[in-house]
Amino acid sequence: MVTEGNVFVLRYMRYSDIDRVMEIDRMSFALPWSRRTYLFELQNDNSTLLVVAPKGPRRRLWESILGRRRDEPLPVGFCGFWHIAGEVHISVIAVHRDWRGIGLGSLMMAGVMSHALGMKASLVTLEVRESNVTAQELYRRYGFEFVGRRPGYYRDNMEDALLMTAQPLDAAYRERLASLVAGLMSKLRFDDVTRWPIIRHAKITAA
Question: Which of 88, 163, 169, 185 is most buried per CB count within 10 Å?
């Protein structure tokens, strides 16, 4: 449950996060990924999975290697993207229903776009359901524009997917992202942004 003063950490997904991430996936999508898919993605050099979680107790090195501590809070959101041939494709992004509406989706999008800048990607693409207006508004905020349509892309109801792209990732886009991050800071009060534009462990405090 969201309470004032929560501190969140955006970090790379671990094997110990799979059960929780699958829970969020099932509540968010009609066609959730399988455990096998998550295992494959975690082992794929071209794939990056991030989670956002309330900040837990300080971890020791061996605990970081082995996985989540018993008293460490569970992730409340996750996202993934592929980096292939100089392009980034966002594969998934979701927030637990109890933690929506405070900016965590925007935080993860900022994290992905910061990674894309750090990777010197030429563009970022994604697919979104035609009916998912909320997600489309978030993506447009981060500079995505409609460039195509994939008819019948979603197998559960044969809904079309809209293809959206953000490009070029140049100096102007870097300035746009900085402005968006400033907006996040006013809402979530970042503790540390020294690792931007490549987010590793950005810490945020909920207002």
Answer: 88
**10 vs 75: CA distance, rounded Å:** 9
* Cβ atoms of residues 156 and 30 within 8 Å: yes
User: How far is it, in rounded angstroms, from Cα 9 to Cα 72?
Assistant: 12
Angle subtended at Cα 174 by Cα 96 and Cα 134, rounded to the nearest 5 degrees: 30
Give Dmax over CA atoms of the chain in angstroms. Answer: 49
Residue with tokens 């524009």: 145
pLDDT digits over 91-124, tens only? 999 999 999 998 999 999 998 999 899 889 999 9
CA angle, corner 118, sides to 116 and 124, nearest 5? 15
Instruction: Enter the CATH code of domain 7-205.
Output: 3.40.630.30
Residue tagged 């927030």 (tokens): 95
83: tokens are 């980096």
Query: In what side-by-side order are the strands of the sheet with 87-95?
Result: 145-154, 159-166, 123-129, 87-95, 77-84, 47-54, 7-12, 203-205, 190-192
| Whether the predicted pLDDT of 204 surpasses 50 | no
